[in-house]
Design goal:
By secondary structure, this protein is an alpha/beta fold. It has four helices and twelve strands. The protein has helices spanning 3-15, 19-33, 59-67, 139-146; strands at residues 43-45, 71-78, 83-88, 95-97, 103-105, 110-111, 118-122, 125-126, 132-133, 152-156, 177-179, 184-186. The strands form three sheets. Strands 6-3-2-1-7-10-11-12 form an eight-stranded mixed sheet, with helices on both faces. It has a two-stranded antiparallel sheet with strand order 4-5. The longest helix is centred in the N-terminal third of the chain and has 15 residues, at 19-33.
Length: 187
């Protein structure tokens, strides 16, 4: 399938999920993450979910990282430049929703992309080769291209892998893993 078709298909599938489904599947994804050998890293980038898009709830992941004493980074998006600025999440971080419903830090201690060791990547769909489909704005491809080559990229998905995404671009950055409630895909 092509990205456009996959976006429509998975947005529709997400709409059918209840709050309880999202809560249970997000918990299962968090538990799966404990099986990955990533816990020796220090700088973890986590997306804050867009509730109206019924994204994976990352609150449990934040608790997990906090409990393991990790440095947690969250982003602020600039829709004019399509760039993300990353901030250290602290007890003093003030978070507001932007005009697109994305929870973002107001300000804080900025951390460069090169410091990020693990990125949890939001997505709508992914395939068995580690290609992903997001919302099509290119924020994460740009951000991931700024990270170190060894940065671990982990997609989080409620749904299992598609066989193949047909219209993958050279600039698309592949995932290293994708974690679903039932499986861990390694690419």
């Amino acid at each position: 399938m092509h990205k456009k078709e996959l976006r429509s298909k998975y947005k529709e599938l997400r709409k059918q999920l209840s709050e309880n489904d999202i809560e249970e599947m997000s918990l299962a994804i968090s538990n799966q993450l404990l099986r990955l050998s990533i816990w020796n890293k220090n700088y973890f980038h986590v997306f804050l979910p867009i509730v109206q898009q019924q994204e994976v709830d990352t609150e449990l992941i934040l608790h997990l990282l906090s409990g393991k004493d990790k440095e947690i980074l969250i982003s602020k998006s600039n829709f004019e430049t399509r760039e993300m600025t990353h901030f250290l999440l602290t007890d003093n971080t003030k978070i507001n929703k932007n005009e697109y419903g994305i929870p973002e830090p107001v300000d804080g201690i900025e951390v460069p992309s090169k410091k990020v060791e693990v990125v949890f990547v939001p997505l709508l769909a992914f395939d068995k080769k580690g290609n992903r489909v997001g919302y099509g704005k290119g924020f994460y491809d740009k951000f991931l291209s700024e990270c170190q080559a060894e940065t671990i990229k982990i997609g989080l998905s409620f749904f299992e892998a598609e066989e193949q995404i047909e219209d993958v671009f050279e600039s698309d950055i592949r995932l290293d893993y994708c974690v679903t409630p039932k499986n861990i895909y390694r690419f």
